[in-house]
């Protein structure tokens, strides 16, 4: 847990700076204080609804008192409460191999990088991993994925440029079954000429996977750019409506003061946050832990 906390701290330093909790201490909890706190939560992308809830309960419990460690603990608890998720944070593991994880997200969200990070993480746990490069429109992304796959020791199944993504998914399922692989990670396109085309393609890939492997996909993970704020939430709505996401990978939380977007995504989408991307390196990837996350915002 200490390692996780350190990584979070590094990734969320800007949000912590924005909160600047030390500056709260000793101040009177009056309207000016509440307005400022509200502004900081909004700026950090915590979202309007969650921010209003926090401000109301702080007003109720601390109005006209002096802001102290108790108030800090109170706000932390509120955030932890908003992030609480009854489902387990670990990825679902199928009772029969392979477990299939479908990864979706718009281009530029950090999808390729996140897949590489996830594959590396699973390899570090000694799991056998096959990658399906179903984004056949972006040869460069598939090349990049091949390089990562080679380094991590994963097999990659890819089609010729422009090949039917569903047929790549089909071949990858067969390969994973034949090899007895534990995990199949399916990359998907992040942009087609229209949103309808994209969603239709994702649905097609999903149904191919479902036909090949009963119970699959075991997770549908949506990669969202954490610097995108409310836009990320709109994307999540579109994807979830179409392919039914089971969790979110939120990227690029380093280098932005918008770490609060984690709360907004969790609140608005009711989806579990599975991992956070906190840098460009393969190891800059953390399973989400609400307590460690909130603690690092207040350090
Ligand atoms: P894709 O188009 O969604 O596949 O996105 P890529 O994986 O190619 O990532 C787009 C850019 O974002 C690249 O320059 C990545 O290095 C960068 N990136 C991805 N994840 C993170 C992250 O967690 N933090 C930072 N700082 N950069 C990231």
UniProtKB/TrEMBL annotation:
Its protein name is: Signal recognition particle receptor FtsY
Q: Which residues form the SRP54-type proteins GTP-binding domain?
A: 272-285
Catalytic activity field: GTP + H2O = GDP + phosphate + H(+)
Location, primary (coarse class): membrane
| EC assignment | 3.6.5.4
Gene behind this protein: ftsY
**Which top EC class applies here?**
hydrolase
Tell me the residue numbers annotated for binding GTP. Answer: 105-112, 187-191, 251-254
């Amino acid at each position: 847990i200490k390692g996780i906390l350190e990584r979070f701290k590094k990734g969320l330093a800007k949000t912590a700076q924005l909160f600047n909790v030390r500056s709260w201490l000793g101040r009177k909890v009056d309207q000016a204080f509440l307005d400022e706190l509200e502004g900081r939560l909004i700026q950090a992308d915590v979202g309007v609804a969650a921010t209003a809830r926090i401000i109301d309960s702080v007003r109720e419990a601390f109005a006209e008192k002096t802001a102290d460690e108790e108030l800090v603990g109170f706000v932390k608890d509120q955030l932890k409460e908003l992030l609480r998720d009854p489902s387990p944070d670990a990825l679902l593991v199928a009772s029969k191999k392979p477990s299939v994880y479908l990864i979706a997200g718009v281009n530029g969200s950090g999808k390729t990088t996140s897949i590489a990070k996830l594959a590396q993480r699973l390899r570090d746990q000694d799991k056998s991993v096959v990658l399906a490069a179903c984004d056949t429109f972006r040869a460069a992304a598939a090349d990049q994925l091949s390089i990562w796959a080679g380094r991590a020791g994963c097999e990659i199944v890819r089609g010729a440029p422009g090949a039917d993504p569903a047929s790549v998914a089909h071949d990858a399922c067969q390969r994973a079954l034949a090899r007895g692989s534990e995990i199949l990670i399916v990359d998907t396109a992040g942009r087609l000429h229209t949103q309808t085309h994209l969603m239709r393609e994702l649905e097609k890939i999903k149904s191919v996977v479902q036909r090949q492997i009963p119970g699959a996909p075991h997770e549908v993970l949506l990669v969202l750019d954490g610097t995108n704020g409310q836009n990320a939430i709109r994307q999540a709505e579109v994807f979830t409506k179409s392919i039914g996401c089971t969790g979110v990978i939120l990227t690029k939380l380093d280098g932005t003061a918008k770490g609060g977007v984690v709360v907004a995504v969790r609140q608005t989408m009711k989806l579990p946050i599975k991992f956070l991307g906190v840098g460009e390196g393969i190891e800059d990837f953390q399973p989400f832990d609400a307590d460690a996350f909130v603690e690092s915002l207040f350090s």
